[in-house]
Design brief:
- It contains ten helices and 15 strands.
- With 356 residues, it is an alpha/beta fold.
- The longest helix has 44 residues.
């Protein structure tokens, strides 16, 4: 799997551009605020249907333009695929695969698999469990469409259940309503837990290998899935019922896979609580690079690696190790200056244009 080229029209600071990529390491070089991250973002959009930074999708439209487009050409073993995304000020975005509009974003999942990392991804370790759940969800959704749809159903039911808890007028009627939601949630909880637990069990040994590679075996990372203890529908329904009074008092659902987490340790010490920023960054990078192998195993295709301004946060030794690792996949790496003498395709960006 590799991105052959991408065409951008009115996308952020790109007016009308076509960028072609090489098979291995692609270095996207330029000064700050020239459009390097915008280019990476556009590729990511074609993988998961959303941005890693924009809260409102209309933000990607260039200044006062009404329409913006991304058109990405992807080479796969089964042939060439064209992914097109059209943004409009007045309508919801349209996603097309080989010219045919898709009805649900889940249909896009798995067409282009991508792993993204930037200095801001330090939140994977440092911030709330929500960030670690998002890490699992993005990876699993690209690999398993069933996971994407299962999680989407769960979130909709959870939203409805919470709405009932906040707006109920009669406790008996509320219990009857929750009984319906709980039966649906139980099945979805069990399915999501199995996916996530299996993902972390597979990810852990590869994260350990990558982490030892980056730290010259001076440190060892360990990962542990932290989620619901229950494994069957009946057990989950019982747990939801047990938490009824607590949910009623707080006005939201306190039990479920929406509270899952990943425990990350270095040399058996919780790195989120006690690790240095450098350790946290190395752990986050190790988990992301290990994700490449997990997706490859599950899809039999190596995903595209997107690295945004990562070199600026690493020492020289780890920079070189990371660059060597990039030979394992087609990599799009942004930086302000690239001094390493390694084979690569260099793309220089200036004010949203390619400089020859």
């Amino acid at each position: 799997m590799r991105v052959k080229k991408i065409e951008l029209y009115n996308y952020r600071n790109y007016m009308l551009n076509q960028i072609e990529f090489g098979d291995g390491l692609n270095v996207i070089e330029g000064q700050n605020a020239q459009g390097k991250t915008n280019l990476i973002e556009a590729v990511y959009f074609c993988a998961v249907g959303k941005s890693f930074r924009a809260t409102r999708e209309k933000e990607v439209l260039n200044w006062d333009k009404d329409i913006a487009k991304i058109r990405l050409t992807l080479e796969k073993e089964i042939g060439t695929k064209i992914i097109e995304i059209i943004f409009s000020k007045s309508q919801k975005k349209t996603v097309k695969i080989d010219g045919i509009p898709i009805k649900k974003i889940g249909e896009l999942m798995g067409e282009l698999n991508a792993v993204f990392f930037a200095p801001d991804e330090l939140k994977l370790i440092k911030e709330s469990p929500e960030d670690r759940r998002r890490f699992m969800d993005v990876s699993l959704s690209q690999t398993y469409k069933d996971y994407f749809y299962t999680l989407s159903k769960y979130n909709k039911i959870l939203q409805s259940r919470n709405k009932c808890l906040k707006s109920y007028t009669d406790e008996q009627t509320l219990k009857q309503m929750l009984c319906i939601y709980d039966a649906q949630m139980a099945d979805l909880c069990v399915k999501v837990k199995k996916y996530r637990q299996n993902f972390i069990e597979k990810l852990a040994p590869y994260a350990k290998m990558v982490h030892e590679y980056l730290t010259d075996k001076k440190e060892t990372i360990s990962l542990e899935y932290v989620g619901i203890a229950e494994n069957t529908n009946e057990e989950v329904k019982k747990a939801l019922l047990t938490n009824f009074e607590k949910d009623l008092k707080l006005g939201y659902t306190t039990y479920g896979i929406h509270r899952d987490d990943i425990k990350v340790c270095v040399n058996d010490i919780d790195v989120r609580a006690y690790g240095s920023q450098g350790q946290q960054r190395t752990c986050a990078l190790s988990m992301k690079l290990a994700e490449l192998e997990i997706i490859r195993q599950n899809t039999e295709a190596v995903p595209v690696l997107l690295l945004d301004d990562v070199l600026s946060e690493l020492d020289d030794g780890r920079k070189l190790k990371l660059i060597k690792f990039c030979t394992k996949a087609q990599t799009l790496l942004t930086c302000t200056e690239f001094k390493f003498n390694v084979p690569c395709t260099k793309i220089i960006i200036e004010k949203g244009n390619i400089v020859d």
